[in-house]
Request: fold
Amino acid sequence: MRALVLQHLDVEHPGAFRALWAERGMRWTAIELDAGEPIPPLEAFDFLAVMGGPMDVWEEDEHPWLVAEKAAIRRWVLELEKPYLGICLGHQLLAVACDGEAARMARPEVGLGAVELTEAGAADPLFAGLPKTLETFQWHGVEVTRLPPGGVALAGNPACAVQAMRVGRHAYGVQFHPEIVAETVADWERIPEYMASLEKALGREAATALGGTVIPRLPDFERTARRLDANLAAIAERARGAP
Reply:
């Protein structure tokens, strides 16, 4: 199986999924959109992953490549109907590309946070084998405010009502970051937009301690990522075999 990965910043990559994909022999191609790399023909790929980034979904004047990216996501999900995973910005892009909406939050959500599966989420194959309450790592200041037509909310919490969603048969978005690895916090702290949201959400003292707070949770986050990846692989295999 071949995966296409759309990235918006070099330090927002598939993270923990890289090792998991290597374990099961999945080949993947990363396209760095912010560096001007073009999106290749979609037909050559079986799975599309769209990562996070510091830009917002509506900032097309500042980032003109968002126009082509949204069109590619829309075609992938609504026309080609192939499996999709969007993380953070990729989750929001899935919503707006398919006629939903996203907007800035009153306060960013950054750090550790519990997410509750909805009834639909508990029954969805994406979350098979996972508990109804998930501890997650968050870093976002925008949220999905209206689901696309036919979209289903799979998880939420008091800070963000749509923490996970499905659009169509097998396009998924998650607002949290299951891909987190040991270097994630340090890498993202060097991004001015991210550091500003971190301090706004947690305050300066707690912000400086975030990296150390996350480290003990990494084994649990890796287990969640492994389960999500296995579930996505099964979903993708079923999609390949569908008429």
